[in-house]
UniProtKB/TrEMBL annotation:
A GO term, aspect molecular function: unfolded protein binding
Phylogenetic lineage: Bacteria, Pseudomonadati, Pseudomonadota, Gammaproteobacteria, Aeromonadales
Regions annotated as coiled coil: none
SUPFAM superfamilies named in the record: TorD-like
Protein name, per record: Nitrate reductase molybdenum cofactor assembly chaperone
A biological process term (GO) from this entry: chaperone-mediated protein complex assembly
Keywords from the UniProt entry: Nitrate assimilation
InterPro entries referenced in this protein's UniProt entry, alphabetically: DMSO/NO3_reduct_chaperone (IPR020945), NO3_reductase_chaperone_NarJ (IPR003765), TorD-like_sf (IPR036411)
Pfam families given in the database record: Nitrate_red_del
Domain of life: Bacteria
């Protein structure tokens, strides 16, 4: 689904390519019919916010929002498994699914990075893509609610994903509102330092290091500067087979 490519770009670290493709992205949002007019307007508002800001300001705001602690992490398994050993196996399983479907991530990013997962789903057939989103519905609702609580325009991305998955966004958010209201969220530098002082778990095993873009047997280090935006994401007319070796 084309709209999943757009949302994956909006959720990724802000890059010049998004600013340059603003009109094309806006057209893709405006013409999609898999989300409501309300959701289309919210995504257009986010696009305008990112595109009209100075790029460095957008990047700074993005890092402050998504890269300070686990509360709003864009890594799926960060929320599901935390630092448990189950997270490593989940990574392996997801990479195996990508490889089975002929999807070569081709970037230095962990396989559960949400924008990357959305690109994968964008090349799947529609029922598979919707099911892939439905599988993480609770997490989508949590992130939508947490972002809405902070009055962040990025909440629009997760509300749109909920709708694509077949859920009513407002209802899904209301179901987790109480949980979110009771959460203690500390994004101070002191709390962040304490978080990074914890022992990091690595996900090395088999060929996973190569698949996840690491080298020399070293763990993947994810930083905002390392996030790459593949230019082919903007080519909405290209055949999915151009990036996958088999039909999904």
């Amino acid at each position: 689904m084309q709209i999943l490519k757009v949302i994956s770009l909006l959720l990724d670290y802000p890059a010049q390519v998004v600013l340059e493709a603003r009109d094309e992205l806006a057209e893709a949002i405006s013409t999609t019919r898999v989300i409501s007019p309300e959701q289309r307007s919210a995504l257009l508002a986010l696009l305008s916010q990112v595109a009209e800001r100075d790029l460095m300001d957008s990047q700074e705001a993005y890092v402050k929002l998504f890269n300070r602690g686990r509360h709003l992490s864009l890594l799926l398994f960060e929320h599901v498994h935390g630092e448990s050993r189950d997270r490593g196996q989940a990574m392996v399983d997801l990479m195996a699914q990508y490889e089975k479907d002929g999807f070569d991530i081709g970037v230095k990013e962990l396989p559960d990075y949400i924008p990357l997962y959305l690109e994968y789903l964008s090349y799947c057939d529609e029922p598979t893509a919707r099911a892939g989103l439905a599988d993480v519905e609770h997490l989508l609702a949590l992130l939508a609610a947490r972002l809405a609580e902070q009055d962040s325009a990025y909440s629009a991305c997760f509300q749109a994903l909920l709708q694509i998955a077949g859920f009513e966004p407002t209802q899904a958010i209301n179901e987790v509102k109480e949980q979110v209201s009771q959460e203690e969220y500390d994004d101070s530098l002191e709390a962040l330092d304490a978080l990074w002082e914890e022992e990091a778990i690595t996900f090395m095993g088999g060929n996973q290091s190569a698949s996840c873009g690491s080298s020399g047997g070293k763990p993947v280090q994810v930083t905002p500067e390392a996030v790459a935006v593949p230019l082919h994401w903007l080519d909405f007319s290209r055949d999915a087979s151009a990036s996958t070796s088999s039909k999904m």
